[in-house]
Amino acid sequence: MPLTMDLDVTDQTRIPIFPLPMARALGAIPLPVIRRLLEPLIGTVARRHPSLFDRLGQYAATTFLIDPTDLPFAFRLSPRPGAPRIEAVRKPVGEPWDARIAGPLAALLGMVHGALDGDALFFSRDLAIEGSTEAILALRNAIDDAEIDLLAEASAALGPVGPILNRPARVVLPIVERLTGVALTRAGGRPA
């Protein structure tokens, strides 16, 4: 069973930071390669969780900047129903956005997987927001309701190979979660 992070987010030292050498290595990956990896993932999320986009309502036309502060790139998310897009962009980000949420990758993943509370992360200053607060709250609520498990989404995006890779990943990732303190899957996450 995947580990659920039970962190006291008032202690900022408890949120793991992505190792700098690994972040630099990721920074060497060309953006078109990252984009090719993200496109099927966002398509799968849209197909498997259509209510996520419906729940955004008027904020579905918002461009969100998801900014892992410990990575050399950020993600521009345009969750338009029927045509959602996500792309990696280099920092500093020159492309326009309407709402920005920034924090360590571990905090952002913990929120997506329901292991960390977004309000607590914000009030402990582990997360920062800019732009449309209402849009950010709508996105957070939509993600919470969808109960997304990024491993299940990635597995589904891989088609018939996904379930084959999902099984060993469900064994290995809880160990990695315990070692790193990062929620890489949703506790009780559904298989692909």
Could you walk me through the main structural features you see in this protein, from its secondary elements to its overall organization?
The structure is a single chain. The protein has 192 residues and is α+β, with helices and mostly antiparallel strands. The chain has a domain at 17-148: SCP2 sterol-binding domain (Nonspecific Lipid-transfer Protein, Chain A, 2-Layer Sandwich). It is built from eight helices and five strands; from the N terminus they run H-H-H-E-E-E-E-H-H-E-H-H-H. Strands 3-2-1-4-5 form a five-stranded mixed sheet. Strand 1 and strand 2 (73-78) form a beta hairpin. It is globular and about 40 Å long. The model is unreliable at 1-13 (pLDDT under 50).
Features:
globular, disordered N terminus, 192 residues, 5 strands, Nonspecific Lipid-transfer Protein, Chain A, 8 helices, alpha+beta
Task: Annotate the secondary structure layout.
Layout: H1 20-27, H2 31-48, H3 50-55, E1 64-68, E2 73-78, E3 85-90, E4 99-103, H4 105-112, H5 118-123, E5 128-131, H6 133-146, H7 150-157, H8 161-180
Parallel strand pairs: 1-4
Antiparallel strand pairs: 1-2, 2-3, 4-5
Helix pairs in contact: 2-7, 7-8
Mean pLDDT: 88
What share of residues is helical?
A: 40-55%
Low-confidence stretches: 1-13
Q: Biggest sheet, open or closed, and with what strands and sense?
A: 5 strands, mixed
Tell me the β content. Answer: 5-15%
Count of DSSP helices? 8
Per CATH, the superfamily of the domain at 17-148 is SCP2 sterol-binding domain
Number of separate strands: 5
**Can you tell me the CATH class of the domain at 17-148?**
Alpha Beta
CATH architecture of the domain at 17-148: 2-Layer Sandwich
CA-based shape: globular
- Rg result: 16 Å
Q: In what order do the strands lie side by side in the largest sheet?
A: 3-2-1-4-5
Termini gap = 16 Å
CATH topology of the domain at 17-148: Nonspecific Lipid-transfer Protein, Chain A
Order of helices and strands: HHHEEEEHHEHHH
Class by alpha and beta content: alpha+beta
